[in-house]
Amino acid sequence: MKVKFDKKLILKICKILFGALVIIFLVWYFWKNWDEFSEKIKNVNMGIFVFSMLFYFVYKYTLASLWHYITKINGCSIKYEKAVTSYLYSILGKYIPGKVFMLAARLTYYKEEDAPLSKVTVCFFIENVCTLLGAAMLFIVSLFFFPNSLLEDYKWITLLLIVAFFVCIHPKIINFFLRIVGKLFKKDLEIPMKYSQMLKVVLLFIGNWLIIGVGFFILTKSIYPAVELSHLLFCAGIWGVSAIMGILAVFAPSGLGVREGIIVAGLMLIMPESDAMIISVVSRLWQTIPELLLVVLAFLWSRIRKMSRIKLKKQDQ
Length: 317
Prior knowledge:
By secondary structure, this protein is mainly α.
């Protein structure tokens, strides 16, 4: 008799166990070094910290605009105001197991406008691909600013990676690999865009990743003032690669532990471990607080708009 394993249940259990282990480790680490950490936390420049958080707000709002642009290219757009609201509201899906809510929240708004939902789903997929590509390019560029001589003799490889990047973002090449992945998951995965369109969208995503990279550098500056301006792109690249690995690490809930580990490993090249550890943990709050605030604002805005429509209908009757 063969025993059938529920893959989703196993993955869910692995996520819970991994998340629990990460939290236990962090609690133990901070408890062990509390005297040192408490002193560093007291010295955080709150003005610079709050300023850095504004970059995350800009980054998320710009992402919402990019989402609308992608739907416009693919012929399934709705009004800009609604598109942005749907995107911001869908952020909550990051904190709900399965992340199906991220797409479902957007589809609700597009269904109201009779937009082709199949195209909207494809746009959601394109957005995620471009997010990874934008972060990847930011990391590749950051290799030029590596803080030691380890990569000094291999800069030509970085140049080749940049050239390869712009070749590999051609839809024909991406779709070739997507069809292979699609066969494994029994889904039709394909990007219906021209190379010129794909290039423009990816460049916009790279620019947006640069915004969040600058914000992360300023966050780092608020906790570790000794970090130099020359490390800006290096810090931005560390944030980018940590985001990529956090997304790809399906066993880690919201990339918990994976992102923090990469940030610590990268920042330890330019600062003490204790400072890198604080920055990695604080960076989680740094992104979570703006995201939840944007969700609340999107919810309030949608409620206000709904109430105003009801009021107008009553006046017309």
